[in-house]
Every structure is written in C-alpha cells, then in structure tokens.
Design brief:
Shape of chain B: globular
Structural class of chain A: alpha/beta
Number of domains of chain B: 1
Order of helices and strands of chain B: HHHHHHHHH
Low-confidence stretches of chain A: none
Largest sheet of chain B: none
Distance between the termini of chain B: 22 Å
Number of helices of chain B: 9
Order of helices and strands of chain A: EEEHEEHEHHHEHEHEEHH
Strand content of chain B: under 5%
Oligomer: heterodimer
Number of strands of chain A: 10
Number of helices of chain A: 9
Radius of gyration of chain A: 18 Å
Mean pLDDT of chain A: 91
Strand content of chain A: 15-25%
C-alpha cells in the first residue's frame, strides 16, 4: 500500500475542514476526489503531505507515518497543491534545480526530462514571474514529477490549462499510474475525473460520502456526474455515505 | 541539511540587494579605515598631537561597531523577512515544506543561511579593511590582526541570537513590511528600556551586540564574559526553541 489515510480529521477554527476521511491507495491506483469547492479535498491533500497537522487520524505513506517519519514518508511523493509554489525571480530550471537538492539522487538530466514531459523545455530559462497561469501549472507539475514519485498528489491540476494542457495532464497521470505510481487527484469536474480515475471518492461538507471504483460508480449511475449528484442528494436526505 | 542551507543561501543571493549591500558595506568599511588614517595623520602631524598610543584609526574593528550594531542587524531583519514572512505570504514556503525535509531542519537551514551570509559579509569586510590597514598603516603587528579577526568572529554570536529572535517574531507576522517595522521597533525598545527603567542592560541580548570590544582590547574579567555568554546563549536557545515550536505547529 502506498498511501493510507485513517479517520483523517482536520478541523479549522470555523469548524469546517475534513472529518473521518479514510481511504487507501495501491500502486497504479488513481483516486479522483470529486467535490465542490470547500468540500475538504484540498484539506485532505494538504494533510497527506504535512502542510496541515491533522486534528486526529493518521496518514501513512509507504509504511511511514507522515507525522512521525516525515522525511522517509515524503521521499517518494510528488505534489502540486493549490497554485504552484514557485519563486518568481527564478527561471523554471532554477526552480527545479532548487527542488532537486532536497533529494539525494536526482540527476541533472531529470530536470530536462520533466520540463520536456510538461512541454516547457522552450521556456526553461525564462523567469517564472512572467509565465501565464497555465505555464505555472505546468512547471508546478514538473516539480511534482521531478523525483520520479511513487505517490503523486495533484490538487485541481487542470486549473488554468487549455484543452491541450488538460489532455497532457491526463496522459501524464495515466502513464505515471501505468508505471506503478499511485495518484491522488482532485477535481470539481466530474468529466475530468471520469476520464482518468480508477477509483472515485465523493467529498461533500468535509466528509467522504462514497468511495468506489470507477466501474462501480458508473454501474450505479449513467455518468459520474449523475453518481455525484445522487450521492449528494442521499447525504442531504440524511442517508449515510457508502 | 547541508543542501537545505545551500538552497536557502541561494534564495538569499537571488535577491540582488544582498550583493549590493555587501559591496556597499565593503566600501563603507574601506572608507572608514582610510578616513581614520587621514584624521590620524592630520591630527598627529599637522596639529602635532601625540597619538602614538592610539591604534583605532585604521584597525578593522573601527568600523565593526557600525556593522555589528546597525548594518548587519538591518540585513538580518531583511533576510528573515525574505526567507520567512515573504514565503508565508506568497505561499512559496510550500515549495520546501512538500520536500523530504523536516520543519526543524528547514527552520534551522534558514537561520544558518542568514548566518553564513553574515559570516561571509564580515569576512569580506575584515579582509578589505585588514588589507587597507596593512597598506596605509595601522595594522602593524600580528596582535592587531589577530584581535581584529577575533572581534569579527565573536560578533557572529550576538548576530546569531538576533537572527533567532527575528525568526521567532516572523512566526507571528505574515506581512513583510510589518515584520520589518516590528523588528526594528522592538530592538530599539529593548535598547531604550534599560535607559528608561531600572533594568540592567546586561540581561538583554541587545545590550551585547557590540560585545566584540571585550575581545579586542584588554581581555575582560572571566565572570563578566561568562555572564554575557550565558545571557546570549540562553536568549538564543529560548528564541530558537520557541521559533521552531511555532514553525512546526503552523498550518500552511
């Protein structure tokens, strides 16, 4: 198992956040977290990479608890959460080489490789500050792929991307999973999730209403969008998530 | 850890102002030395006063007081603002936090990088002023050179404490300009408080930014040195531990 979240709860001062979220990811899994804005998707992802300290519960990556053994837990993780954290003064390549130093064994050619993979090699030596939202997103994705991750965590990676960019991200996610990488990806677009996920988690009001394989979800409803709406309707009526 | 320090140091140097400030500082140190020599020569030869017992004119430590108590503290405040508050406010702190490095190491690396910069700054200023002193006179013995070196080295201790203090305050303030103001204001207050109230300046770390003077003249009494070292180390430990604790608990 690559990633395991057990009863993960993170509550903010306004009592919103995520409650009792439990899921697990094996190599090759692509878990799409689907939910509206404010449903707790980002909170779960941030808790998985240690940006947030969970109120309760536990996150384990490759057998290492994120809270107790952070360095080992994060050694095989690539993440892009919210807007890419990039240094505007630096070029794309400088940003990547800065990140590469946190890992013990990233050869220089990896930097060129990931820049090529996200189709940013032409802009490698340009300052990130002058990039469009989509270009920044691509560099952010390159940063996530830099250490050849065994777990990829992507929070709304299609934000700001054009159609080609969205297709490229989908291809990257699928090929990473085909190589044995586990992927946790969030979106509020059901169609996007349907096109690449192997598993679907419906998040609403900070809770994981449903966690199914994509096949099960599509057997239960004509489309993932319909499945999402039916699960939310059931929750609103007082039904408990699956 | 070493790579994290290198990263933070590179981040600092990507801000060109730190290179410019280093050049300005070096020129100031040099001008100070040369000006001291001119004054020395004028007073001793033109006016005719005997200044043979005075050796402060072109000795590198002449300018150290300015750097230790004014110039470098301001640079430390700027660097802490850039490496902490600026990264908090533009969220680039996540760049490092999502890497396999603990928050304790990252926090320590940021402080270490600032101190490496300060050490480099002092080394350059020392080298230039020492060379100037040797060329134009003033540094005429190994003893003077050694005392200057000692003065520059020990200056790093209170600067380290000041850096830990600034990093601690940075955990409360996200805005860079507000942090800068708070740091300058608080250090001025800490300096002024012993004048206004019956508190010994010896108990505050800000009273020892210029403690290098203890090592450049006649060596001070043992217990006085121990007392100052204890104040500096205990303040530094409290600031460092408080800062790491707050940084570790922060949500981003």
């Amino acid at each position: 198992m690559i990633l395991e979240a057990e009863n993960l709860t993170k509550l903010y001062k306004n009592n919103r956040g995520a409650r009792n979220v439990t899921f697990a990811l094996n190599p090759g899994d692509i878990l799409g977290l689907l939910g509206p804005n404010g449903s707790g998707k980002t909170t779960v992802m941030k808790s998985c990479v240690g940006l947030l300290r969970p109120t309760s519960g536990k996150v384990t990556i490759e057998g290492h608890a994120v809270a107790d053994d952070f360095e080992r837990a994060m050694s095989g993780v690539g993440a892009l959460i919210e807007a890419p954290a990039l240094f505007d003064r630096l070029t794309a390549r400088q940003n990547l080489s800065l990140a590469a130093r946190y890992y013990p064994d990233i050869p220089a050619e990896n930097i060129d490789g990931v820049l090529k993979r996200v189709e940013m090699e032409k802009y490698a030596n340009e300052r990130v500050g002058g990039f469009s939202l989509g270009m920044r997103q691509r560099v952010g994705l390159a940063l996530a792929l830099l250490n050849r991750p065994r777990l990829l965590i992507l929070d709304e990676p299609a934000n700001g991307l054009d159609i080609e960019g969205m297709v490229a991200i989908r291809d990257i996610v699928k090929s990473a999973a085909a190589e044995g990488c586990a992927v946790l990806i969030s979106s509020h677009l059901a169609h996007e999730t349907e096109l690449c996920a192997t598993h679907v988690g419906i998040m609403y009001d900070g809770e994981m209403l449903s966690l199914r394989t994509l096949e099960e979800a599509l057997n239960a409803a004509p489309s993932l969008e319909d499945f999402f709406l039916s699960e939310v309707a059931r929750y609103r009526k007082g039904g408990v998530g699956a | 850890m070493k790579n994290a320090v290198r990263n933070e140091f590179r981040k600092l140097l990507y801000h060109k102002k730190y290179i410019v400030l280093l050049i300005i500082g070096t020129l100031l140190g040099l001008a100070w030395s040369l000006l001291g020599r001119v004054v020395y020569t004028t007073v001793s030869t033109v006016i005719g006063w005997n200044l043979s017992g005075v050796d402060f004119n072109t000795v590198p430590t002449t300018s150290l007081s300015f750097f230790a108590q004014f110039y470098l503290p301001l640079m430390i405040f700027m660097a802490v603002t850039d490496l902490f508050s600026a990264e908090y406010s533009d969220q680039t702190i996540k760049f490092s936090l999502m890497r396999p490095i603990t928050r304790l190491k990252l926090y320590t690396a940021k402080i270490a990088a600032i101190l490496v910069y300060c050490a480099g700054f002092l080394a350059v200023v020392l080298a230039v002023t020492l060379a100037a002193g040797i060329i134009v006179g003033g540094v005429d013995s190994f003893g003077v050179a050694f005392r200057s070196l000692l003065g520059f080295v020990v200056t790093l201790v209170p600067l380290g404490v000041l850096c830990c203090y600034a990093a601690l305050i940075a955990q409360f303030i996200k805005s860079g300009s507000l942090l800068m103001f708070a740091l300058i204001f608080s250090v001025i207050m800490l300096t002024v408080v012993p004048i206004l109230f019956p508190i010994s300046p010896d108990v505050l770390f800000t009273g020892h930014l210029g403690w290098y003077t203890l090592f450049t003249g006649v060596m001070p009494g043992f217990w006085r040195t121990v007392n100052i070292v204890a104040v500096l180390l205990s303040s530094g430990a409290v600031f460092y531990l408080g800062g790491t604790m707050l940084f570790d608990r922060k949500d981003f």
